[in-house]
Design goal:
It contains 20 helices and 16 strands. Strands 6-7-14-11-10-8-9 form a 7-stranded mixed sheet, sandwiched between helices. Strands 2-3-1-4-5 form a 5-stranded parallel sheet. The protein has a two-stranded antiparallel ribbon with strand order 12-13. About 45% of the residues lie in helices and about 15% in strands. By secondary structure, it is an alpha/beta fold. It starts with 5 loop residues before the first strand and ends in a 9-residue tail after the last helix. Helix 13 runs parallel beside helix 17. Bound molecules: nicotinamide-adenine-dinucleotide. The site of nicotinamide-adenine-dinucleotide has 31 residues, from helix 9, helix 11, helix 12 and strand 13.
Length: about 550
């Protein structure tokens, strides 16, 4: 969205707007202003007293005037009152819609809001009259008012979660977002047992790839770009030019697009090209493409000359949030997918969300399944209690499907941070990395049995079936399964497909991740997060599959 001159925080009372604005002063060097405090100063009275004595319309009118004045300032963070954004006039081009104004909405559940407001009321004493806390059922009041206002809060550029996150953490996150709007990339560092990965995320990030590769490999002379026949014509030239500007001799090789290229034959083509053109140990392979190119080029980088440098530049959503991070590389074998491979943490991953704009629509939509998966497992991941990714996805879904910024880069970054934390804790998948298989055990079997579904579409069905399985096995209740299903719906992913049960069951039987001959399932638990269960009966699996099978009467 370009560089920003002011940040406006909107959202319900109790989401922390004022405290966060104050903490941003130190981080951005911008002063903080609070529209409620300005109004109180103007009238010489408290907000409840102004409401009582002057009426709501006088209050709203002065709120609008004061907000308009505050918005004429540059380099300022403005915290607004909970109802300020409800006035349609504040969204005009002279106010929240003005150039250089970043509007962020802070979100928290009604339960969290109530607890915070009650705490504030106790801390500040009886002098604080909170109309919201009056009456018999304040929670219901908050729920009703929040849901009435939600569509207004959702007009912001980005909604972020203020749930289970400290004011300092929230301020840090907002400072990062504002720097990203100004052209800096967000970064994630992944320290795994086998090596470290520096991951850069942001719109236009690939324009800096030359500097970053040069910084990481100061002595390297050649960069070998591996791409596919779809991505190459769209993006390889720009990447090649950036690398040449930083002093690399850059060459590009495009393999055929599609899963078929994750093969020994295509790896052989790449070995021939690299060895025939004089690749050396100090060189760098740049994987420019979706997960297929990333896995294939990563595998070749891990094996040619026993290992050369590797940069991942994901161009599909799936590759951006999932496959480019974590160091799994590999190719397929007739006996199954990804059966030959190596672990190689790419020292550099450059995630330019602008590259996603050329993706085919169906592939793009399908990639959101991996994002939903991360949101479901979040509570079971290291640091995963912080901020509610599922809520962030639900609130920002339309902006994300339109690839709006800064929402897209923010969500991609959060996903990468989540995956990086899981991989750092369990690189070789002996423990919690298996949580990333949520929806994939059933999804892979569905994908293998039905050749019309894209990976993410099959994973969406797999997640729905795993949720149904969770209910059948008592891991979670129906409301958790419904919550997951609703989130999948927000990204237009399928709810059923015509499946042949016998074929899916056969595929499940040959899954490479079975342990001691038993299939293990990652199932949702109430309140978010997942559990691994090895005691699931075949009958329950068939029932869960029936819930997503369009050919069964109940599907
Ligand atoms: N290594 C891991 O940890 C990991 C994790 C998940 C998935 N994977 C692997 O990832 C692969 C799937 O990845 P994928 O969904 O990205 O598939 P893909 O690489 O085949 O890309 C999907 C399609 O989109 C095209 N495409 C990609 N980016 C584009 C762009 N910006 N513009 C235009 N077209 C574009 C590709 O050419 C291809 O036709 C599978 O092989 C899977 O096994 C690996």
């Amino acid at each position: 969205m370009g560089s920003i001159d002011r940040i406006v925080l909107i959202g319900f009372s109790g989401t922390g707007k004022t405290s966060v604005a104050r903490r941003l002063v130190a981080r951005l060097g911008w002063p903080a202003a609070d529209s409620d405090a300005e109004i109180e100063r103007h009238w010489g009275a408290t907000i409840p007293a102004i409401f009582r004595d002057q009426g709501e319309s006088a209050f709203r009118s002065s709120e609008r005037t004061i907000l308009k004045q505050l918005l004429t300032r540059d380099r300022v963070v403005i915290a607004t009152g909970g109802g300020a954004a409800v006035d349609p006039e504040v969204w005009g081009r002279e106010m929240l819609g003005s150039a250089g104004t970043l509007v962020l909405s802070l979100d928290a559940s009604p339960e969290t809001i109530l607890a915070r407001l009650q705490r504030q009321a106790t801390d500040e004493g009886a002098a604080l009259e909170r109309p919201l806390l009056m009456g018999a059922d304040p929670l219901l009041r908050i729920q009703d008012l929040k849901s009435a206002r939600q569509s207004v809060y959702d007009k912001s550029h980005l909604t972020i979660s203020a749930e289970r996150v400290s004011v300092d953490e929230l301020a840090e996150e907002i400072a990062d977002i504002s720097r990203m709007c100004g052209g800096e990339s967000l970064s994630v560092r992944l320290d795994a047992a086998s090596g470290a990965s520096e991951i850069r995320v942001g719109l236009g990030a690939s324009s800096r790839i030359g500097d970053w590769v040069r910084h990481r490999w100061p002595a390297a002379q050649r960069a070998w770009i591996v791409t596919d026949a779809n991505v190459g014509p769209l993006h390889a030239n720009a990447i090649e030019n950036r690398l040449c500007e930083s002093g690399f001799q850059a060459k590009t090789y495009a393999v055929a697009a599609g899963e078929g290229s994750k093969s020994l034959d295509t790896a052989g083509e790449l070995y021939d090209w690299l060895l025939g053109s004089g690749v050396e140990r100090g060189d760098v392979i740049v994987a420019l493409g979706g997960g297929v190119v990333g896995d294939l080029a990563g595998f070749v980088a891990a094996t040619v000359l026993r290992g050369v440098g590797l940069v991942q530049v994901p161009t599909s959503l799936l590759a951006a949030v999932d496959s480019s991070v974590g160091g799994k590389t590999g190719i397929n074998h007739a006996a199954g997918k990804n059966l030959i491979g190596a672990f190689l943490q790419p020292p550099l991953v450059v995630v330019d969300t602008g590259l996603l704009r050329t993706m085919p629509a169906r592939e793009f939509r399908s990639g959101w399944a991996e994002v939903v998966k991360h949101a479901v497992i979040q509570r079971s991941t290291p640091g995963g209690e912080r901020g509610d990714l599922a809520e962030v996805l639900a609130r920002n879904a339309e902006r994300l499907l339109a690839l709006d910024e800064p929402a897209t880069s923010y969500v991609v970054w959060r996903n990468i941070a989540l995956k990086a934390a899981v991989v750092a804790a369990d690189e070789r998948e002996t423990g919690i990395r298996a949580f990333l298989n949520f929806g994939h055990t059933l999804g892979h079997a569905i994908e293998a049995a039905d050749y019309h579904l894209l990976h993410g579409e099959a994973v969406a069905l797999g997640m729905r079936a795993a949720s149904a399985l969770g209910v059948l096995c008592g891991a979670c209740g129906c409301s958790e399964a419904d919550r997951i299903s609703r989130l999948i719906d927000r990204f237009d992913l399928p709810s059923s497909a015509a499946l042949q049960e016998a074929r899916v069951m056969t595929r499940l039987g040959s899954d490479k991740k079975r342990v001691g001959g038993r299939q293990r399932y990652v199932l949702p638990v109430d309140g978010g997060g997942v559990v691994i269960r090895g005691d699931v009966t075949e009958d329950a699996v068939k029932k869960a599959l029936a819930s997503v099978n369009a050919t069964t009467p109940s599907g």
